[in-house]
Amino acid sequence: MTRSKSQKTLNYFKRYWTLYLLLLVPVIYLIVFKYSPMANILVAFKNYYINRSVFDMPWADHNGFGFFVKAFQNPDFINAIRNTFLLNILDLVCGFPVPIILALILNELRMMKFKRVTQTILYMPHFLSWVIIASLSMQVFSTTGLVNDIIRAFGGEPVDFLKDPGLWAGTYIFLGIWQSMGWNTIIYLAAITGINPELYEAAAVDGAKRFRMMWHITLPGIRPTVVILLILSLGRILGSDFERIYAQRNPLVTSVSDVISVFVYNYGIRGTASQIPLGAAVGLFQSVVCVIFLVIVNAIAKRFGERGIL
Amino acid sequence: MFTKNTSKVGDAVIVFICVIFIVICLAPILNIFSRSVSSSSALVSGRVSLWPIGFNLDSLKMVWEDPKYTTSLGWTAILTIICTIFSLFITVVCAYPFVYNNLKGRKFLNGALIFTMYFNAGTIPNYLLMKSLGLLENPLVLIIPSCLSVYNMILMRSFFYGISDSLRESAEIDGAGPIKVLTSIYLPLSKPVLATIALFYAVGRWNGYGDALIYIIREKQWFPIQLLLYNIIQNSTQSIEISRLEGFSLPGVSESIKAATVIFATVPILLIYPWLQKYFVKGVTLGAIKE
Questions:
Q1: Nearest-CA distance from A35 to chain B in Å?
Q2: Ordered structural domains, chain B, with CATH
Q3: What is this model's ipTM?
Q4: What pTM value is reported for the model?
């Protein structure tokens, strides 16, 4: 019995050992670069010493939670949490509906060539780096920039968008939408093609006009996709895209631009060695809250009969 | 799509809205292009908006002849090619074994991969890892840590799943091993998705600067173009204010040079992506399907 089983296993490996050989590189990568740094999370609970391993460093105060306590006493951190929340909520409220509306509009285009060209152009901003977008922002929103040219053409006073924290946040949100709106239509357009065409035919027979079809057939048809993307966005509500914000921030608007990832960078990477655990503690706090958020939102979505992602 | 009860007016409104969106997408790019080819006097007086004024190629030429930019562009190009090839390799060898339903440890590996999509060790733990591996100030830090994207792997895998098992089985009956099946059946059939993933990796590397910003400080020769550009932009915002206060004519020049650098850093990608549109649209759709 055991013999035939081991014989079977042997045959199996004889036949498929090359598959494991292929997996060797990715598995080593996964262990070294994805899982082994998780041990370094421990540094958030330790006092940092340059020449010691994480395991040999002494525990921080408050049973190791000293740097979490310090973080919550740090006004920069409280500010960073507030900014992360605010910018993400603004992103979500202003940005989430845009690709849906855009997809509905693109779906109504019947000149196929024009549709294709429009899509190519709408996808373009997604391929620009955040540094490029930041430099576009400086050109377009500066006092001598394009937007102020338009304001002047209408007889208005020029506004310095990039120096006022509130207006800067507006430009940040706008450019985020600008960058992703076209790209995000792809998934909605794919969902729209999956809708049964008979529904439209039946509605047309009943005399439904374009807008009614959008509202009663297309939108309900893409609802599962909308919910999944909403879950993912809500799961990221305390996350932050470091490259995006770091390229666009400037010294005059730090009161709104410095989010958690910027805090981690400023304290943990650019700060003194003794602040490394503080950066790590804040980073860990962010990761954990993100996961918790994702699980909660996913559970709520499932409660309401949606498919969810986990 | 089936739409009979639609009016001509409605169609016109739809087209009009699309044109507005097109203008919004193109205007900033057009603006920066015009700046790169306008005369510096026109720039300083702020007359340049959508169209070039005093057309000349001086700034583009200056950037093109300045070794600071060309070496950085060249290095980024080489880096992008190396990263793309390496990442493509590791993505394929990670995705392919999943095609075998009876592969032992398949579920566990899948879980281990998906988990990293939702939970990352974090900036500081990763930094400490690079430090202990001696990768700080090392060009390899721009290649290895980001070489596998789980999202791209899932995309690749979904495509592989779509290839009929019977093709594989008949090849196996003819005595082909898994690697032979990969190279003679799966890869030739996967050209569209390989192109898509190559594009994603290439764009990611060409546009990325966060890792270089964190891991490379002193060894400036390893700066990718985006980090160089970032530093130029950050410095020039201050130097422009200063030179403006002191009444130099320099800001016009530096403005157009900045614009020219942006053009050089953007054009390679803008030339490539439209040709792959059909493929990456399919790719994104495929990536939405999870196991």
A1: 8
A2: 60-287 (1.10.3720.10)
A3: 0.90
A4: 0.91
